[in-house]
Design a protein that fits this description.
Elements (H helix, E strand, L loop, with lengths): L12 H29 L7 H16 L4 H25 L3 H23 L15 H8 L5 H35 L7
Length: 189
């Protein structure tokens, strides 16, 4: 029953929530887009995600230590790539496409970060947690790739892959925002 003169709202209350979700997600997409452009252009790219990645890198060493020296050394890189990949898979299974797209961006950011570590394999100028051996110096040496040209090629290709994956993550997050804004998709996805 409605009161005389009262107008009935045709606005779906869920749409108001959709707008709020979009407004909260937009800064994340803009930040990811800015990092996608600025990090690869920097000589020594760094963002706060590097501090998030560090424990996963170190845990990867510990986790893969029982499987031989090569996997132990490679474990740091694999660990920092595996965590966002596993989280992305989790979000995809739950049909949370926006979160999965940002995890894809995160994987790309890790590739850019790893490329810096690779490029330092000869100079070994980067400070290492706990000192010790430089992972990529050891890996490149083991596989006969420690020459200047090889290190430059592998690190450049890794950086390029990172940029492509970061861009794919940003584009994926933009598409989920557009779909949610059009009402053609569940905004929680």
């Amino acid at each position: 029953m409605s009161l005389p003169g009262a107008t009935r709202s045709t606005q779906d209350p869920r749409r108001e929530g959709d707008r709020t979700i979009l407004l909260l997600r937009l800064p994340l997409v803009l930040l990811a887009a800015w990092w996608t452009v600025s990090l690869p252009a920097a000589a020594l790219p760094h963002c706060f995600l590097d501090w998030v990645n560090l424990p996963f890198h170190e845990a990867g060493h510990l986790f893969l230590a029982p499987f031989g020296t090569t996997l132990h050394v490679l474990g740091g890189t694999l660990g920092q790539l595996a965590v966002p990949a596993i989280l992305g898979g989790y979000f995809l299974r739950r049909r949370q496409r926006f979160a999965a797209a940002l995890c894809l961006f995160w994987i790309g950011e890790n590739f850019v970060d790893v490329s810096v570590y690779m490029a330092d394999a000869r100079a070994m100028a980067l400070p290492l947690v706990g000192g010790g051996e430089h992972d990529w110096t050891q890996l490149f040496y083991q596989f006969g790739l420690l020459g200047e040209e090889s290190v430059a090629t592998v690190s450049s290709l890794t950086r390029g892959l990172g940029v492509i994956v970061m861009a794919a993550g940003v584009l994926g997050s933009v598409f989920t925002l557009r779909a949610a804004g059009d009402g053609s998709s569940d905004p929680t996805s």
